[in-house]
Amino acid sequence: MALKNYFNKIELLCYVLMxxxxxxxxxxxxxxxxxxxxRSLITKYSKYFNKRYDxxx
Length: 57
Known about the structure:
By secondary structure, the chain is of the alpha+beta class. The chain is built from one helix and two strands.
């Protein structure tokens, strides 16, 4: 599921990008919405990073 599809399930209140991590303030609309969103976000970023830097894992 594309990340944009999650924005009807969560409300992103604010975010901060740091050099080696990030902070999100999220309000979920249903019980497991935040868990599903975070899993998708981390998975998609890992795939992007590994492809860009020719890495695996």
